[in-house]
Structures are given as C-alpha cells and as structure tokens.
Amino acid sequence: MGTARITGQDTMPDIACGLGSEDASTQADRWTRLGREAGLGRTETADGLEIRFRGEPAVERELLALVSAESRCCAWARWEVHHTAGELVMRVSAAPGEAAAAAALHAMFRTGAAAGRKPER
User: How far apart, in whole angstroms, are the C-alpha atoms of residue 42 and residue 39?
Assistant: First the structure.
C-alpha cells in the first residue's frame, strides 16, 4: 500500500463528533484495543498528531476502518495513513492556523491508548 488519504472538508466547521454516544464509545474501545495491541508511538505536531503502529495486514485493516469512520464524524480534519520503515503511520491534521482544532486532535488521543501506552492520569 502507498498512502491512503482520507480527507475531510477544507473549511473548518464547529468541532464536534458526528457519532452517537454508543458509536463513539465503540469507536473509542476499538482505538484503545488497537493501541494496546499494535501502537508504537505518538507525536503531537503543530497542526495535529502522528501515531505509529506495527505494519501488519490485520493492523492496517483495522486502522483504515477506524480512520474511515473518523473521517466521516470528524470531517474537519485531514486523515492519512502510510507505510514508513515497516510501520504504519497515521497522520491527522487540522487546517493551517486552526489552533483550537489542533488542540482537539491532541486531546482525542491524549490517553495514549492509540499509541500503545497506559492512559495518562
């Protein structure tokens, strides 16, 4: 696989999750499980996040499914998945100059669950 680019709108609407509470809970559980089982690291960037995962086919399928759902509920962000040095890298970013959106992205994965770390308290 090369790069999968799943990109939301170019304009910045209100930052809100489009998933219902049950779907959001299920999505969060899936991210947590993927992070625990395959997460390698998480880096905050000025405009979002970069999270690394093991480069295995099952991990890639789950990551792409999660990113697909996120791109629909968080269409204000840009979601990308690519391979680098045998790892999968998910990059999610906000529009340039949108500090509030970048902060929201940082908070989405702040627990470290998607990065394979124990949640911060």
Answer: 8
Tokens representing 87? 């790892």
12 assigned to some structural domain: no
Q: Residue 59 has which token pair?
A: 């991990």
How many domains does the structure of the chain reveal?
A: 1
Domain housing 70: 41-113
Single pTM value for the model: 0.73
CA angle (87, 88, 92) in 5-degree steps: 140
Residue 56 lies in a domain: yes
Structure tokens at 117: 């770390």
What is the per-residue pLDDT across 67-101, written as a single tens digit (0 to 9) for each? 998 888 777 788 999 999 999 999 998 887 777 77
